[in-house]
Amino acid sequence: REYVAQIHAIQHIEVRALERGYLQETFVDEGKPVAAGQRMFQILPSLYQAELQQASAEAEFADIEYRTTESLQERDVVSPSELAMARARRDRAAAERRMAQTHVDFTQIRAPFDGILGRLEVRNGSLLEEGELLTTLSDNSAMWVYFNVTEAEYLDYQEKLREDDEPVHVGLRLANGRLFDQDGVIETIEADFNNETGNIAFRATFPNPNGLLRHGETGKVVMTTEVDDALLIPQKATFDLLDRKFVFVVDEHDVVHQREITVMAELPHIYVVGSGLSEDDRILLEGLRKVRDGHEVEVEYEEPAEVFSHLDLHAE
Q: How far is it, in rounded angstroms, from Cα 123 to Cα 158?
């Protein structure tokens, strides 16, 4: 079974300016890998450097004042309360210096994790506001692939999970029709069904060692379900009446009889029959519109292997 899927990086964030100012330098380029801690942008720090120098001077002055007051208090020249006030002024000045240093540090924007850089939204010399978007960053080392399944398929999945107690592996068909060379594992299911569609979202995680997958891609999750002793017939051998499916069975006298079947699963060009046929039955493959129930026909028997060999999906 194939399910339309959305591919997301396990981490995908917006990188924004933490301070207001002019963008002085850009050290990275779009679509390139960056390492955790690598400097990406530099906002002109002149104003914040001046504030830091002022705060450092005031902190140094407050420290000198405190040490002087402490010396005087030891000789009982000043009261203990004056010493406490001097200590408070020193601590406040030290906090203001740390705050000024933080503002300076915020003018250097570094990568929080290894990832791939997105589009650059600003250029050098741009006036940035606090919180303005600079770019995006994606960790593509592994990918989260989301796909929706019906309620019935969800129940079947949960039943199989209880029986096997093993992670369910899935494949990923890319937009060009090829299968991705890594298998994924279903790791989580969302809490609620969508009341409008009746579906629930699954999430599979795929390793992405070569970086082929990118955030925002689409594809199809391929989930394989084993069916024991499956009876397969070509879809073209069936016809519909109302909401039921039928085939023409050819008896030993070459007379055709209309018979209803149920379909357990559907594959490209093939049905897995749930009931209505046995492996010894002969069914009409061509000319279904030319016959009626009870007609005697001339038939040419074809081996099942030969029939399936001309379909897109071969049976073994």
A: 51
Q: Which residue has the tokens 């009876």?
A: 231
Q: Which pTM was predicted? A: 0.66
Nearest of 128, 138, 97, 158 to residue 26 by alpha carbon: 128
The residues, ordered by sequence, that sit 6+ positions from 270 with a Cβ below 8 Å of its Cβ are: 232, 233, 234, 235, 308, 311, 313, 315
Closest CA relative to residue 157, chosen from 199, 128, 120, 125: 199
Q: Distance between terminal CA atoms of the chain? A: 18
Rounded-to-integer distance, Cα 26 and Cα 180, Å: 35
Tens digits of residue pLDDT in 128-146: 898 999 999 999 999 999 9
Q: What burial class does residue 265 get, using C-beta atoms within 10 Å of its C-beta: 0-12 exposed, 13-18 middle, 19+ buried?
A: middle
Task: Give Cα 278 distance to the centre of its chain.
Answer: 43
Cβ atoms within 10 A of the Cβ of 147, count?
Answer: 22
Positive or negative, the CA dihedral 23, 28, 32, 33 is negative
